[in-house]
Amino acid sequence: MGVSKTEGAFRTISEVAAELGVQQHILRYWETRFPQLKPLQRAGNRRYYRPEDVALARRIHQLLEREGYTIRGVQQLLAGKGEREPGPTPTAPPPTDSALPATTAEALRALRNLLAKALED
User: Fold this and answer.
1) What is the reported pLDDT for 81?
2) Euclidean distance between the first and the last CA atom of the chain, given in angstroms as a whole number
3) What are phi and psi of 62, to 5 degrees?
4) Distances in whole angstroms, Cα of residue 17 to Cα of each of 10, 21, 40, 47, 66
């Protein structure tokens, strides 16, 4: 970030997006999926993220990108009472013969598709 703001300062959507390394539309999408994430909206629908909004966006990003949770898994985690320790996605495993958790299976499918596409090119 260019100019450093104090910890309690409101942040714009562009500042939060830059901090997390995601596009602004991803943050707007998260607002539709996670009712807990409600930045203030001013004239012209300009979004201002309070410190607690920024902290929640960081936590959502951590769960989705680094810990491999699905959107549904994060929704269930955030809707639960209190913050749980990180762990496997709290969604039921898909009805397959595979013993892999949903997030691992999804990650492997995505990797398989990526490798198949690379071989085609």
Assistant:
1) 45
2) 37
3) -60, -50
4) 13, 6, 16, 12, 16
| 109: CB partners within 8 A, 6+ apart | none
Pick the CATH number of 1-90 from 1.10.1660.10, 1.10.260.40, 1.10.390.10, 3.10.180.10: 1.10.1660.10
- 80-102 mean pLDDT: 49
Burial of 27 (0-12, 13-18, 19+ CB in 10 A): buried
Neighbours of 60 (CB within 10 A): 25
At 102, is the pLDDT very low, low, confident or very high (cuts 50, 70, 90)? low
> Which H or E run includes 40?
strand 40-42
Confidence of residue 20 (pLDDT cuts 50, 70, 90): very high
| Tokens at 102, concatenated | 């949903």
By the 10 Å C-beta count (0-12 exposed, 13-18 middle, 19+ buried), 120 is classed as exposed
Residues with Cβ within 8 Å of 22's Cβ and at least 6 positions away in sequence, in order, are 61
